[in-house]
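FAQ: What does a multi-protein file look like?

Like this. Sequence, then tokens, then the next protein.
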Amino acid sequence: MITFEAKIQDKTVRMYAEYPLKNAAGAIFNTLTKISKEAKVNIFDEKFVMGFGWSYFYTSERKDNNGNTFYVVQTNDYKKNPFTTRTDDVTLALLVQNMQVETVRVAGVQPEASIFKDTILVLKEAINSPDVYMNRTDPAKEGDSGWYFGLLNDPNEETHTSDEYQKIPAFELFKFRSEALRVLELPVGTVAVFHNNTMTALVDGNDQPMKFTTEEERKVLAEKQRAEFEAEVEAAKARAMEAAKAQAAQEEKKD
């Protein structure tokens, strides 16, 4: 587990994740700092909730082994029940945040908000089918994402009965099509096509192709980012060792 740390109002704030999601973690820290300074909000209150992108974030007070106070950034626990359970592990929240930011940026569109609890209309038959599509229409009401998840080239699309559909909260896509999470903030009119867990096509409301990164391109980028992060960690360790040596040398001179 990787620890990200920042100072906000002279307090130590930490985030824990399984991957070196430095940019996503930095965005959370920056927003917490901004809210604290500009909005004069007490981000260390146990009732504090920050909506950021697709998730909610909270702060929880802790003590280290020496009795020093620090705060952990928590988020909704998508592995259990995000409506009732929080977790110190922000990996999934940051991963989805990165996915959605990247997709919107590469497509060159303005995002339209969608959060983990917004509902998606799903054709039950499509859940375990390899070839599916998602289409976003105007949300029917608050809490509705506007997204539909159905079979690609469905010959019975016009004749399905209501009991063949179900509404699910968006986070349940983790269970059967996690890659679909990346498109949830694309605007009304968007159609995304998937083969298994790979997006194969993306078009806008005018049936014009939209740019998106391939799975192979994302792997190359992830490897580059990990290498850069590891280099930064090694450099920080080297600086810390040099500082410790310099301190030890000064202590010897005093003696």
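And here is the next protein:
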Amino acid sequence: MNNSYKSIGLFIDGGYYAKVNEALESLMGLNVKMGALMNLIRQQVAGLCGTDMAECHITESHYFRGRYRVNNANSKHLLYSERKFEDSLIENDVVFHYKHLKEVEKGGNVTVVEKGIDVWFALEAYELSVLRKFDFVVLITGDADHEMLVRKLNALKIHTILLTWDVQEGQGTSTARLLREEACTHIELSKLVVQDGELLKKLCMAV
């Protein structure tokens, strides 16, 4: 194999990704384009390696999210938007992993419980990293619970990149400090967007 070839494993925390999109939609009427985001990742890895983008390939991409059962999703008018988003995942060869959400009522308040997704995310990312021997692993998440995953990936001598987008403070997209500190490289998209005035247009589409 060409020594300049770099394989990338991409793992997306769907809950975090959804919060980024919700913040973008609320503030600017935009959503992230999955294909454009994946191209940006390849471009950033190429920059880190000092090689051509054509030599950097996302060889595995996985998306993890909790979602409602079909009857609940239908009553909440979510089926169309969920299917539309899944189409974008399929078009970009992203494997999606779902577990059912649960609604728990306590004291008159309903809480949505997303159980087991973080553990599944971490186990899948670690196992595939061991098997596929990625050169780079990109994690799209802001959750402090993934700190130990990053440590384990570092122990495998895999360059771990944390990719985040703190769209606006208070919008639920901030990144845990310990997670930032553990990653080999932290790419904060809000900073890149400020540096490159055209990047937002490339990354996003109108809702």
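Q: Is there any per-entry metadata?
A: Some entries carry free-text notes. For the entry above: The chain has one domain: 6-206.
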